[in-house]
Every structure is written in structure tokens, then in C-alpha cells.
Design brief:
Structural class: alpha+beta
Largest sheet: 4 strands, antiparallel
Order of helices and strands: HHEHEEEEHEH
Shape: globular
Number of domains: 1
Radius of gyration: 17 Å
Strand content: 5-15%
Number of helices: 5
Number of strands: 6
């Protein structure tokens, strides 16, 4: 079954590349507007109901043979999320084996993401877009100088929006197919939602 879904695991056709000298379209920093222009386009499209998004996502996961144990219960209160409990209840290999989504106050899907790092970061003003900070990377076991704000937070601020902090959608990845990882599933879910007509403000994020 997963072979029939292969196209969704490929980067979206117009996704700007990373690491190409002189091509900065992938960046939301230093006044680059490629991703902001796409965000404005997505923001102008009709909002898709959250429960349709839940159904699309669970249907896709089932099509690639991921067991969906939490159907119709993917809506979480961010203040009550317990990654270890989600791992235990869904027999995950890692607490990071989830796909999650957050929304704007107006109901737009802001981003499709993965890992146990749900957040609602957003700059206070445009002077903070290009700020960096030292942050510990538990996988590399060292501090790294990284952007303070995520691309989705910057794009939401540029649109004059705010995050809806009352809920997030979480999809546990119980049995990721052999040869794939959670990042692959994140990419495929995001691209499948685009295929189903769901606007995503940070349109390219799940492709990186």
C-alpha cells in the first residue's frame, strides 16, 4: 500500500532547496520573502475544518500501514501533553515519534511538524526575526547557535496572526514502516494535506 503513496514522500515540486549558494528562498530571515509570499497565498484560501484535517491525516496513516489507535482523539490540550504517556499508550519507539499540528486564532493550519517539541513561539516584533540563541542539542550533546524563532512563528507574525494555544493535533506514529523515519512521515502527511486542498501557512516546513 505504501508504494501507492510514494509521491507524497517526495519534496513538494517548488520547495526551495537548502544549501545552494546564492539561493536564499528557503529562508525566512534577512528579508527573504519567498516563503512569506506563499504564506500569504495560503492565508487567502478557505479554511478547512479541523476534523476534516484529522480524518485526512488518519486515513493517510492507515494507507501506509501505520496503526491508528487514537482516531477521533487527536486533539490535545498543550498544557496536559505527556510525551512519555503518549509513547507508552501507543507503543512508540521514541517519544519523538509523533506528527503534530498547530493552528492560528483564525483557524488556519500553521505548520505540520514532528518530534516532541510542541511550541507556540512567535516574535514580539520584526526586530526579533533574525535573532539567534545558544540551545542544547540532546542528539549531538552540545550547545548550538540557532535561530530563536521558528519559521512558522515568524510567518504567523508577518501575517498579523497569533497561535491558538488552546489545542494542538497529535498523531502518534506507532509502527513506522521499515526504511522510513518520522521525518519522512511528516513530509508525506503535509504533502497529502496539500493534495487534499488544506492550506498550510508554513507551506514548505514539512519538506525540510
Amino acid at each position: 500500500m505504501i508504494e501507492k503513496m510514494h509521491r507524497f514522500f517526495q519534496s513538494f515540486p517548488d520547495t526551495p532547496p537548502i544549501g545552494v549558494k546564492g539561493d536564499y528562498r528557503c529562508s525566512v530571515h534577512y528579508k527573504n520573502t519567498y516563503r512569506l509570499d506563499k504564506a500569504k497565498e495560503q492565508y487567502s484560501l478557505p479554511i478547512v475544518d479541523i476534523y476534516d484535517i484529522i480524518n485526512y491525516t488518519n486515513d493517510f496513516l492507515e494507507k501506509i500501514s501505520i496503526v491508528v489507535k487514537t482516531k477521533d482523539s487527536n486533539k490535545y490540550n498543550p498544557l496536559q501533553i505527556d510525551y512519555k504517556e503518549i509513547k507508552r499508550n501507543n507503543e512508540l519507539v521514541s517519544v519523538a515519534d509523533i506528527v503534530w499540528m498547530k493552528f492560528t486564532n483564525s483557524g488556519h493550519l500553521g505548520v505540520v511538524a514532528t518530534s516532541n517539541d510542541i511550541n507556540f513561539d512567535i516574535p514580539l516584533n520584526e526586530n526579533e526575526y533574525d535573532k539567534k540563541e545558544w540551545r542544547y542539542n540532546p542528539y549531538k550533546r552540545k550547545n548550538e547557535l540557532v535561530w530563536k524563532y521558528t519559521s512558522s512563528g515568524i510567518l504567523i507574525h508577518q501575517l498579523g496572526e497569533y497561535w491558538d494555544t488552546s489545542f494542538v493535533l497529535v498523531f502518534p506514529l506507532s509502527n513506522i514502516p521499515k526504511g522510513y523515519n518520522r521525518g519522512d512521515i511528516e513530509k508525506a502527511v503535509g504533502n497529502y494535506l496539500i493534495h487534499k486542498g488544506v492550506p498550510i501557512i508554513d507551506f514548505y516546513s514539512h519538506n525540510y
